[in-house]
Amino acid sequence: MIQPGSVHVGRGERAVPRRAAGDRGWLLAGALAIILMAVPVLATAGERVTERDTERVEAMILRVKPAVVGIFTEVRAEVNIRCGKNETYVVKPDPVIENGTGFIIHPDGWIATNGHVVKPIYKDDEEHIATFLQAAADSACGPGLAKLPAKQRQARREAILKDPENRKGVRLFKRLDVFFQKRVAPGASVPPGVPAVVKAYSPPIDPSLLPKGGAVPPKGKQMLDGAIIKIEMADLPTVPLAGRATHIHLGESLHIIGYPGAVLWHDFLSTESRGAASVTFGRISGFKLDINDRWVIQTDASISWGNSGGPAFNRNGEVIGLATFITTSVEGDQAIQGFNFLIPVQTIQQMATDIGLTPKAGDPFTQTWEQAIAAYFQGDYPRALERLEAADKLLPGLWDVQRLRGLLTDLIEFQPEITPAAAESAVRGEATRQHAAADAGASW
Question: pTM (2 decimals)?
Fold first, then answer.
């Protein structure tokens, strides 16, 4: 439910084709730039500290991204509608498709997200019936109704929509799919999905459903906007959940990963990259009590429709909250960035406890993937590539794995061709020392 002043929020990089082996000049220039980024030349202590801090953040994001998933809900209908005597039609209105974000909290396919992300397939039957019946009436009965006088036309349309037989004639078909960060096949509009079922649910915040006088909802009727869903897969990448809520502080930096609709459905971006999640950055700017008397986290990090359920990570790569609602103009038609809100991850932890689930971080893919990332930032590119190939066998085709493989292949192929003098000349125009591979990345 969207309220004035607040709203729940529900294609990435394109692969660069590699040139032919004979085009050495182009490749050498590109490889030189890559080497210089990965193996910095002599810098001041302050520059090096800043660079290493940046590398730590990049490494953290790379580590956790594979466990962030996209979520699609789709509701279709087949409507048998009677427009008049001996006038019955079968109509299939356009489906209602929405997207959100989730993250894996247990390697056996347990995923956390917002309640309003899965609400279209978990609740809302009456709303769906009304929507699809109206669409069917406009399609099938509209031409005949158009011949009637305005007043009679309106009365007849209302009678059609209220007809109990017409309401019974609406058959709903619901689907909840989870997709991983993989390349979308040419010709396909969305990433391939894995069917999911809802295992735990708390409805989204709706002030109109508060007890009289605006009292706090009693336990069992709280609107916590959380959900846990399940897919039938095992050994999936996972993310750790932060411990106590008191361990987060004003001004603390955070990163939110998700699938904002503005990017997912962007007309200028290839559909092939829709499986690539987006990352936004911000800080904790406040703590507020919601209508459940629960502390929520305010942040200036950008979020939008489709980010819903997306995890917010601290600098240690732990989930501290879920992107849940944004601030809008009074009319509700314009998002006001910089004043967004996360529900605390403790809501998900409690929901997991209630269904007998213990979130678990650590799995074969994540362990292997972390080894690849560590070797990459330490400059041990052959080791990084070997670990990367092992990770790809455990969960094939992930977007970031494919991108890092291409980068490592170029680094290994062209690193011997780039002398320290050539690298220094390209950056500073003067001679420099031999760089040390052991000092190439962040310390671990």
Answer: 0.81
